[in-house]
User: What shape does this take?
Amino acid sequence: MSENRKPRSGKESDLLSRVRAAARQEQFLEVVSAEEAKARFERHLDLRPLPAEMVDLAAARTRVLTRDVVAAVDAPPFDRSIVDGFAVRAVDTVGASNGNPKMLTLNAEVIVCGHMPIVPIAMGTCTAIATGGVIPRGADAVVMIEQTELVEEGAPRIELSRAATPGQFVSYAGSDIARGETLLRRGTRIGAREIGMLAACGLDRIEVVRRPIVAVLSTGDELVEPGKPLKPAGVYDSNGAIVAAAIAEAGGEPLMLGSFPDDAAVLENAVREALAASDIVVLSGGTSKGAGDLSHRVVSQLGKPGILVHGVALKPGKPLCLGVIGHKPIVVLPGFPTSAIFAFHAFVAPVIRARAGLSPEAAETITARVPVRVASELGRREFVLVSLVQGEGGPVAFPTGKGSGAVTSFSQADGFFEIDALASALEADSHARVTLINGAAHVPDLVIMGSHDVALDVVVGGLADRGFSARTIAVGSLGGVAAASRGECDIAPVHLIDPASGQYNKYLATSGLSLVPGWRRMQGLLFRLGDTRFVGRSAQEALKIVLADVSALMVNRNAGAGTRVLIDKLLDGARPPGYSNQPKSHNAVAAAIVQGRADWGVAIESVAKLYGLGFLPASPEDYDFLVVEDRRERPAVQAFLAVLRDEQIRARVRALGMEPSDD
Ligand code: AMP
Ligand code: MG
Assistant: This one.
C-alpha cells in the first residue's frame, strides 16, 4: 500500500538520480584555506615574466618594458631659444635700462626652427630668433622681443631696455634628457608620458614583455550573449565581459571564447582548444550546483597535474577550482558574478600580473566604522563589500548587501573588509580595515540614503550637471531615517505613512531633521494586461475579488518598505496566498507578475508602465526628503534643493509619472 513498494517508473528514477546528483555536489568540495589554496597553486606555476617581443611605439601603451631604456640622444639636441626674441652676447647688454637703452646691430639673418644659423654673433650685434631656434655661435643669451624696440633708420638695429644674464631664455642641449641617462626602468607600464619620452629619444619600436593570452569561457545553459534578446529563464553572460576586462587591467590579453552550454563533450572540446591557444584558461560557472559539477569534471580529464584545489574557505568564492595542465594554469571561477570577480582578483590577477612583468598590486586600505552588525559563517573567511561615506568621526562603511549573485555589488562598492574565519560576526560600530577597490576612495559631495525612486535619478543627474557628485545608497525609508539621525547621510528620501494621522513623512521631521517636499507618486495594483479580475475595475473592487479567489497569487514587499505599510493597510489583516513572498523592490514585484510567479502586487505606476503591466491606482503617496539640518548649508545640499525646484527637472520628473510637490 505504501508508495515505496510500487516499482518506480523510468521517469521517476531519472528524476531522483538528478535530484541526488544536485544535492551531492557541495560534498565534492574538499575545502582548504585561502593560504593553502594559493600555496598549492603556486607550487606548480611559473611566475616569471614571459619572453620579450618588439612592438611599435603606437602599440606600446599599457605594455611593460623588459629592460631599462637608456637615452641615445640629448633632448633638446642643441642649445635653443625658449622665447621669440634676439640672440645676444650678455656682456653687450650690461647696464641697459629704459633710461639708458643699449643699441645692438641686427645681423642679416632670422633664425627659425629647423635651420642651422649661419652668422655668428659678433660684439655689439644680435640676430632675430624664433622659439625653438638654434642658438648661434657667439651668443649666450636671448632677449625677449617685448623688451626691444626696432630702429628702422639707417642700419637696422634694436634698442634694448633691459640687461640679459648669461643663459637667459636658453634651454641647453641635454637639459631635458641627457644622452646615457636611464630614462625608464624595466617593469614600467607604458602610458602616454612614457610614449612621449621614448619618441623624444627617437625610438619607434620598443621591447616589451609578451602579454599572457588568457582564454575566457563562460558556462551555463542559461547564458545569453549581451546584445541578443533575453530568452525565458536566461541571464546575460556578464562574467565573460568583466573577467576579460579585468584580465586586460592585470596586463593580460583576453581571448574571449564566449559561453558554452552545460554539456561535457562540448565544454571539453572548447577547453582543449582554449589550452592550445592561450597561456592561461579561465572558466566561470559549473563549479558547484546546477550543472552537476561539470567544469570540474571536464578539467579533471585534461592532463597532469590536473586539479590542485577544489573549494576554498572564502565567502564569496567557495566553489573555486584551481588546476594546472602541463604548465598552463586553468581556473574555474564560481558562476555568481561577485564571487567570480573576487576569486579572480585573489587568485588569477596576481598570476597574470607576474607573467606580464608587473609587480604585485599594492592594496590601499583605510579604517572605517561599520555601523551595523554583520553576521558571518564560522570557518570561512568572509569578504564584505561596502560603500564608504564620511561620518562625523571619520569614514563609515555600509555593507552593500547585495550578495554574491550581484554584478553591481562589486562594481558599485568602494571597497571591502574581511571577517576572519574564526569570527561569527562583526559587531555593530566595530572598526574594520577596508581595502579600497578603485584606488583612492572618492568621497562624494552628497550622500543620499533611503528609499530609491526612478525620478531620484533625474535629480542626481541634475546635480551632476551642476558639478556635484552624489552617492545614493538604497536602504529603504526606515534605513534612511536611521542613517539621517546618525548623521551618516545628507539627505534621506522617504515615503512612510504615519499610521496615527494617515499623513506621509511629516512625522519624521524630528529634531535635527527637516522635511523638504519631493513629489507625489501613485501606488496601485499591478497585474498582467487582460486579467479580467482587474481590467475595468477600481483597486478596491479588484482587491475584493482577488481576496476571495484562492488561485490569485500575490507578491508582497519587505518589512521596512513604505510600500509594505500601504499593502498591510489595503489588506486590512488579510493574508492572501503569496503574502510571504517579500522581494525588496518595485521592479522585483513587476518581474514576478510579468513572468507569472505571481498575479498581482503593489508598486508605483511608472514601474507598471516600464514592464507593460496593467495598473489600478490605489493611493497617492508623498516621496519627500529628510535633510540633516547640520548639513543644510553645504554647497551640495543647497544645489540639491535648487535642482528640486528647477522647472526643467520638475518637467522630467513629471514625465516619469510623478507630480512634483510645492513647498
Ligand atoms: P554555477 O556556478 O554555474 O552553478 O552558477 C551559479 C550562478 O551564477 C547561477 O545563477 C548562474 O546563472 C550564474 N552565472 C553563471 N555564469 C554566469 C555568467 N557568465 N554571467 C552571469 N551569471 C552567471
Ligand atoms: Mg551554471
The chain has 16 helices and 36 strands. The first helix runs from residue 10 to 28. The longest strand covers residues 513-527.
